[in-house]
Design a protein that fits this description.
With about 170 residues, the chain is α/β, with parallel strands linked by helices.
């Protein structure tokens, strides 16, 4: 589980409630018998989040089903979805480049693990860009059930109190 409660850029609203959400989810999953790894919410800059995800998939046991839960701000840009890490900058020439692309196929294909479920609970408001943008804060892509080296990768997005389920055609 990775949550981004605080942002370095003052133009991105903090989401301090994420820390409590992660604790509650940790307790729920643990009481249901799941082994939970919670990433340090104080280490949520781009590279730290990317490395945590890569390491998580790297350590998978053969055919182990893996669940990734991501929480923070999110954006959609040119058909792709991104998690906004703590280090993202609204002043960057290309804001999405400072964000984490929500496509882990390249990491999953190197993993020994099995099927993967990615839950994205990302706030779509609270990013105050200084200029007009083609980024979308109102919708997610229609990313579907993917296949990576014979594994199924499922994406589930939470948005404005609704769940957007990515399913195959």
């Amino acid at each position: 589980m990775i949550g981004v409660p605080h942002y370095d850029d003052e133009a991105i609203d903090d989401l301090p409630f994420i820390v409590d959400d992660l604790r509650e989810l940790d307790a729920a999953f643990t009481s249901a018998g799941y082994q939970v790894e919670m990433h340090d919410p104080q280490r949520t800059h781009h590279d730290a989040v990317r490395q945590a995800i890569e390491s998580f998939f790297d350590r998978a046991a053969p055919q182990q089903t893996q669940v990734v839960y991501l929480s923070g701000h999110g954006v959609h840009y040119r058909g792709r979805d991104y998690l906004v890490p703590a280090s993202a900058s609204t002043r960057a020439d290309n804001f999405p480049e400072s964000c984490l692309l929500l496509d882990f196929g390249h990491v999953i294909e190197k993993s020994r693990g099995g099927d993967v479920a990615v839950f994205v609970d990302a706030c779509r408001e609270g990013i105050h860009l200084l200029e007009k943008s083609t980024m979308n804060t109102a919708a997610w892509s229609r990313q579907r059930l993917a296949r990576v080296q014979g594994r199924r990768v499922f994406y589930l997005y939470a948005w404005r109190g609704q769940m957007v389920v990515a399913t195959p055609r």
